[in-house]
Amino acid sequence: MQEFTESFKRICQEAKLVGANFVVVKEDKMVNHCIYGMQSLEKNKATNEKTIYRIASISKTVGAIALMQLVEAKKIDLERDISDYFGFLIRNPKYPDDPITVKMLTLQTSSIMDGYDDENPAYDDIRKGYNGVNGTRLDVRVKDLLVENDGPYYTPLTFSDYKPGTRFIYSNFGCGLMACLIEIASGEYYTDYMENHIFKPLQLDASFVASHIHHQELIADLYYPQKDSEEGYKVAVTAERFVNGGYPKFPLGENFRGPAGGLFISMPDLSVIMRMFLQGGIVNQVRLLQKETVDYMIQQHWFGKGDSESYWAKGIQMKVLHSFPEKPFRGHTGGAYGVRSYMYFDVKNQLGVCFITNGGYREKETHRGIIDLFYDTLELVINHYWPKQEPKTEFTFAIGEKLAHIDQRIVKLPIAPFVQEEEIYLPAISLADGLNIVAHRNEEKDLISFTKKGLKIEYSGLLEKQGVIIIPLKKTLQALNIPFEIKGKEVKIIS
Prior knowledge:
The protein has 14 helices and 27 strands. It has 495 residues and is α+β, with helices and mostly antiparallel strands. The protein folds into two domains: 2-69 and 187-385, DD-peptidase/beta-lactamase superfamily (Beta-lactamase), CATH 3.40.710.10; 394-494, no CATH class. The two termini are 32 Å apart. It has a nine-stranded antiparallel sheet with strand order 3-2-1-15-14-13-12-11-10, with helices on both faces. Strands 18-17-16-27-26 form a five-stranded antiparallel sheet. The protein has a four-stranded antiparallel sheet with strand order 19-20-25-24. 26% of the residues lie in helices and 25% in strands. Strand 13 (330-336) and strand 14 (339-346) form a beta hairpin. It is globular.
């Protein structure tokens, strides 16, 4: 433990962090908790184990739990057109006949973007779209942004050039719309729903409203580094500003601003939520979701480069990390007001990590930065807690059936595997999930590659069926030297 802690502190020093909180979970308990630095520089208050942070975009994954609770209650259908819930037609004007579904919002493939572009002079006369009104115009409603003739805040920049469902584009607005759907379906204000159905049942001191936090003295100040300086920070937002600023009471179904990044929570409390994913929907004897729902959330549903090099595969409001080959952690990162954070977990090995800093430097010539810190801390966890003899992954499915199993997870395949000319074909994304890897897709060159244990196979001229990329199973497994068994319609792969 001492070696781990000293390594963590050294990493924090190299990145010149203000403060940090780092929790490691193994199976159903916290096995390590490291703290560093200051909760507040001005108040000379050190970071402690219970320091509460505004965690930024990890909020999206927590919000998805609420959405999936309502899916279980049959109040929300992931495949349904979001227009049906909002009560007015929402369409990308470039694709007027293509519905935008709830699931697309969760995967950030809806083609709905954050709108206003500061670099585009054509829209300098009025701030439009989500980015244009966020934090400035609290009277603007969802319809004002999404319906062309409904108000002055609509901009075509809200919609991408890609057909809904075909391209990943990171969207805070899309997450905000997800929160609006939660309000419409539940009849509860989003912040109330999160407290009533997640935070209070788990006895967490957490909220999207800072003034609802019981121990407000634990809320961290947030810091930006001084520009063009190797030392020093400026305050981005103080804890008092968060608490006293309040949270506007938008009309029900119009709370699209704060949900994308506004959750206040400590790392130990966040780790409780993460343990819920590790334990199949139940934590501290409280069931938030059914196991089948958790399995569905964490399976790979989309893959490709999208608008970011860091996103290659997506679950429900979470990414599948590809930076450590054959160790595809699930989770999310966060960044706002100087905060840099992540929550990543691996169900197979029952390992999870929550990390946050309230300020630090990006990479410069003289020292490593926060982005390096992410990988350094994850590598530290892998070196200390990853099993020396990693258990094999067992992927089983039946030809003609859409349900499969990856170890103890139930996986819903987008199309059923089928036989053609003595070869078995199945969705490429499902095989990547079953092999416990992230496949790399080059959309520009129409390529997809699989890498496992140092072996690689690449396909060009990709085949599709019902809009799903399919690949030959036996050819792929033989190239990667992965054993498999076929008995009738039953297929078993052990990798």
